[in-house]
Structure formats: structure tokens, C-alpha cells
Amino acid sequence: MTFFRLYKILTVFRAYQLNELLPTNRFSKWLPILISCLFWIRPKAKHEEIGERLRQALQELGPVWIKFGQMISTRRDVLSKDIADSLAKLQDQVDPFDGKVAKQLIEKALGQPIDHYFSDFDEQPLASASIAQVHTAILKRSQAEIVIKVLRPNIIPVIKADIGLMYWLAKQFTKRIKFGAKLRAIEIVRDYELTLMKELDLKQEAYNTIRLRDNFINSNILYIPYIFQELCRENILVEERIKGVPIGDSQTLKQHNIDMKLLAERGVQAFFTQVFKDNFFHADMHPGNIFVDITEPQNPRYIGIDCAIIGILTEDDQYYLAENFLAFFNQDYRKIAETYIASGWVPESTDPIAFEMAMRNVCEPAFAKPLAEISFSQILLKLFDVARRFEMEIQPQLILLQKTLFYIEGLGRQLYPELDLWQTAKPFLEKWYEDKYSAKTIIQQAWASLPQWRTLLPELPAKLNDYARMTKQMNHQIKQINHELTCRKKRERILYSAIGILIILFISMLIIH
Predict the structure, then answer these.
(1) CA trace torsion 493, 494, 495, 501 (10° rounding)
(2) Which end of the chain is more exposed for a tag (fewer CB within 10 A), N or C?
(3) CA–CA–CA angle 277, 396, 75 (5° rounding)
């Protein structure tokens, strides 16, 4: 945290009149006084609502704060609706840096002039985001059209300084503001830091993209572009240039007679396939990262880019999440409560009846609507909110999942408002659950492990003998220890008795004299 950076933040805070975001308490009293001293700062967007002013302020503070605003916009459990809606409008497009600088960064990373590998390198960026920007070129050896993603120069020191400042503010907020701990400000910053650090390693993004592509190779649901791994470095990524229509351009999709119902359903299928079948899901599927292949209007598929943020669940989380979803689809509130407790997401001491009633109060009003009008992601958010009241610990992997589900359902409803997520998701989950945990699968797994048992069984008698001998030795050692302790106690009793007798004799002699 530097004085100049803090000064910049305070000036932006004053310019956009964000004082009303401060709670009224002794910690925040000094801040308005400090900000009011910056009388030379002219107000901006003074006729806008607070959410819009906050959004513009984050934009002015730069890429790190833009990204932060995008991330916290998904945390509707800690933000008011109007602020969350305004922050959700933050776009990936920001002012680009000089294309000549991008060219120099690429040459330095590859150790060769740009024309050694590429031709037709365009210094004008195709797109510019908060962390990196993208340039187009032709790969010389194959004449393939490619894009080169380049991290912004000198961004890491800026990020570390800003994150350090965020931590300081979050700690002060948590310590000094009543109920501040309940907002989990430090955990929000920590989640953001982890997310951001992953995005700064483009070699990791290359690996994620390759693995996700392998999972959907020859799929009619989702296409992931090819990565030229040998040309990727920590600060540059080289991949196939995709041709598609941005998912948000619904007008163009309709003009090409795209089957919107099928496209919306395939978005749901892509999500559940990644989460349950592959257990490796794209966790940043906002509209800027999703395109549509329109070459076959009646057989459209998604194109996914920017695989920096990936979610992975443990096998236990997968199991309990599937059980939770299915119980939810079947309106079995007791099962939902039992699943949360059994998973360890809430303490074992949680009263299942009280928890069930809380879940029922959230779900039953929603089920009064037609299924196509029920927002699955909104109810899931409310269930997590109820669980937090029962001391549920934050599960980072579930937050990523929740955010991704918000994106998928929102996009699906935007494409096809009558989307029945239940009709699409429930059969998928039931089949996955049956395939994963059916008696047939268990028998197959046991059969597959027979070679291991064949290796283990001949050694089993010797291992049992070793175990028996070790147990016997341990029992003998325990008996010796107990015997020594008993003898020690006897000796201590004799010693204490002797000391007592001597004290009595000494007192008697004093009395006699």
C-alpha cells in the first residue's frame, strides 16, 4: 500500500460521492472528514444512482478494480440488488496498451523476432481486457489463423499493491464495524486474489484449455480452440482463432435462424457435463467468453474461450451436490438438510428439523410458480444463504459453481425465455447418479480391482502375522509401562507416608521441648 495509491482511491471516492456506502460507526467517522478535505476534486456522475457511481469509480481505478467489481457482482449474498446489478454491467473491454509494446513482450518471451513464427501480426488489438489483450496473426509454418494473448506490462506489482490495500481495508472493515465479520470481506478478497493469480499464469490457462478441449473433442455441444502449447509462456498464450457470434448478440443469432431452444438446452448440458461427468468446469463463462458456431443453424454449438478459471470438486462434493440437486428437484427438504449436514458443509450439531423447515420456507414459495419460471440458480443462492445462517463455512469450489450456474441459467433464459432447466438437468443428473453409484458400477469397480487383490492376497498371511506380532509387542510394552507406573505409584505412596511420619515426629519433638 503506497500513499499515492491510497490518495488516488480517496480522490475517486470523493469524485463519485461514495460516502453513503460507509456504515455509521466510529471507524468510518474519520473517513468522510478526510475525504471532505479534498475540496479541489470535482464531482462526477452526481445524478447517477449509487450502484452506477460505484461501477464508474471501479472503472477509473483500473483493471484490478474492474475485475474485482466483476467478481463481487456475483456475491449477491453480501450486496444489495441495485449495486450487484450495476456491477454486473462492467465490461471486459478496457483501454488497450500500445501494440508495439505487446510486440516487444511477445518477442522477448519467445526469444525471436515476431516474424520468425508469425506473419501479418496486427498491432491493433482484437480485444482488450483487464488483465491481458489479444492480437491476431498468421502462424507461418501452417498458415493457421491464430490469436496471441499478452499480459499487460508491469501489471503484477500493481496487482500486489492493490490487493495488499484491499486486505488492509477488509481487515479494518471486519475488526471495527459491527457485524462486519458476517460480510466476510477478508474471504472475498482472498477468493479474488486466488482467482487473479490463476489468470496471471497463461501457461496454466493453456493447460486448462487443452484438457477442456480433450473432454469435448468431437462434441456437438461445446468447442474449445486448439492451443499451440510450444509457443505458450507465462505471459503469452497462442491459440487457434475462432469464428463465431458472441452469445450476447441475440439479434444476429435470430437472423441466422439458430435453434434457440436447443442452444439454451445445450448450455445446461455443457454445464452439468463439465461438473459431473468430467469434474473440470469452466468457471468464468460470462458472455464475453462464449460464442456460438452458426455454421449449422439447427445444430448450433458453443465456443468457449478464456479457460483461466477452472473449478474442480472432490468426489464427496460431487456426490453430495448431486444428492442435493435431486432432492431439490423432488422437493425433498429433509433430504436437502441431511445432505448439507452429512457433507460437512454445516456443523454436525445442526438441528436437522430446524434446518429442514428453513429450507422449506425458501423453496415452497418458488414451487408455486410454473417450472419454467423458477430460477434454479436463485434458489440455490437462497439455500446457501440459509445454510450460512446455520454456520455453513464458505466453500470456494461451490462459490465458483454457483457463479457459473448463474451465468449459464441467465444466458439460457436470455436465449430462450421458456427454458425449463428442470426438464434438461434432472434426467441428466438421474442418469449420472445411477451410472456412478448403481450396483452394476460397484460390481464393475470391484472386478476391476481384482488384479490388485491377486497381488495382495499371497502377502496377506505374512502381513497378518506381522500385524499380530506388532500387536503382541505393543501389548507387552503397554503392560510394562502399566507395571512401571504401578510400581512408581507404590514408591510415591511409601515416600509420602515416610515424609508424613517424619513431619509428625518433628512436630511432636517441638511440642515436648
Answers:
(1) 110
(2) C
(3) 110
Q: What is the phi/psi pair of residue 147, to 5°?
A: -125, 145
3-state secondary structure of 392: coil
Q: How far apart are the first and last CA of the chain?
A: 80
**Structure confidence at residue 227 (pLDDT):** 97
Choose among 397, 377, 431: nearest CA to 318.
397
What SS3 class is residue 444?
Answer: helix
Q: How far apart are CA 46 and CA 154, in angstroms?
A: 33
Annotated catalytic, 284?
yes
Over residues 212-236, the pLDDT tens digits come to 999 999 999 999 999 999 999 999 9
Closest Cα to residue 384, out of 371, 400, 373, 372? 400
Which range, 29-43, 159-173, 467-481, is most confident?
A: 159-173
Q: What is the DSSP string of 214-275?
A: HHTTT-SSEE---B-GGG--SSEEEEEPP--EETT-HHHHHHTT--HHHHHHHHHHHHHIII
Q: CA 262, 267, 270: angle at the middle one, nearest 5?
A: 120
pTM for the predicted model, two decimal places = 0.72
DSSP 410-433: HHHHHH-TT--HHHHHHHHHHHHH
Q: Which of 191, 284, 293, 420 is catalytic?
A: 284
Residue whose C-alpha cell is 499451440: 228
Q: Distance between CA atoms of 256 and 252, rounded to whole angstroms?
A: 6
Residue-wise pLDDT for 449-472, tens only, equals 666 656 666 765 766 666 566 666
284: helix, strand or coil: coil
**Percentage of the chain modeled with pLDDT above 70:** 76
